[in-house]
UniProtKB/TrEMBL annotation:
The lineage of its organism: Bacteria, Bacillati, Bacillota, Bacilli, Bacillales. This is Amidohydrolase. PANTHER family: AMIDOHYDROLASE AMHX, PEPTIDASE M20 FAMILY MEMBER. It comes from Sporosarcina quadrami. It holds the Pfam family Peptidase_M20. Residues 175-258 form the Peptidase M20 dimerisation domain.
Amino acid sequence: MERDTVAVDKQISEWFAHFHAFPEVSWKEVETTRKLAEILTSMDVKHHTFNDVTGVVAEIGEGEKIIAVRADIDALWQEVDGEFRANHSCGHDANMSMVLGALAYLKEQELGCRVRFIFQPAEEKGNGANSMIERGAVDGVSHLFGVHLRPKEEIPFGKVSPAIHHGAAIFLEGKIKGEDAHGARPQQGKNALDPIFALAAFLKTIHFSPYEPYSAKLTKIQAGGDSLNIIPGTATFGIDMRAQSNNVLKELKERVSNGIRSISELHNIEIDLNWSDYTPAAEVSEEAAEIAAEAIRESLDEDSFAPAIITSGSDDFHFYTIHRPDLKAAMIGIGADLGPGLHHPDMTFNYDALDIGARVLASTLQKASFAN
């Protein structure tokens, strides 16, 4: 990159410091959107926001062909040092900063087409990508790239992977609707706890091929009050389900649905279900990943290249390829010495990874701009 790397590196750090200090949760990224628009205006980059959702879409370059990069902009809501607050423990503050850095590097470079920058809301809710798809963010786009910091157990600092193969995920919230009973007269009610125990046992009986990673586990149970002599008739529960492929997750959902239906009939009790936050598994384009691989080797060196990452985590980035199967997409993984882990309230990483990510991403986008 011809542009002054020291100046861009410093600017990336300043952007990161701001986003890190002012996190906002999904669909409420109002000030984050305003700041992004302010930065893009100062860079003289054309962009637009939306009247009904947060997020920004910007564009540089010319021509009919369009490639794009997406950055997620929302934070998590979690307990940090005894206080619940917004927190960028998933590294979206870093993702925004790396994408802005790539834009800064590319702005004075020769490009083979238009490059679109999608600053997307609500990744943590699993439906922010859909909001951008509905508003035309990937209309006409041939190649789409993403970028994300990776935990140190996946790749170390200084290593960069051309593709992250995320798994699929979906969440279930259920409500058991029975009747309370006195602890001495259980026959007079409908115990909500027995179906919970049956459900916990049932989940352990679901098996697929050991070569297909998957899991289904209870993550929330709420039942009863302070009185120990009342058998609760109402309970709520939550289940987190994941699989490395979309087909296995689909079958897993069917198995769980059928199992809960049988438990409901067995205990003669009503169970309401609400499925939410489905996130598909990655559909990685070999062409897009190869472009990123070449960019890693050329902008860094051969020793910095890491193989594709397979992770049970999920990301709504992959909705773009579900809705647009012709889209050639890959998400680049940046080694950052990140720990204790993504979504941990005390997550931290080596900030030198930010400029590495920006330079690799800029090189990737420039190469993709000239691809057929």
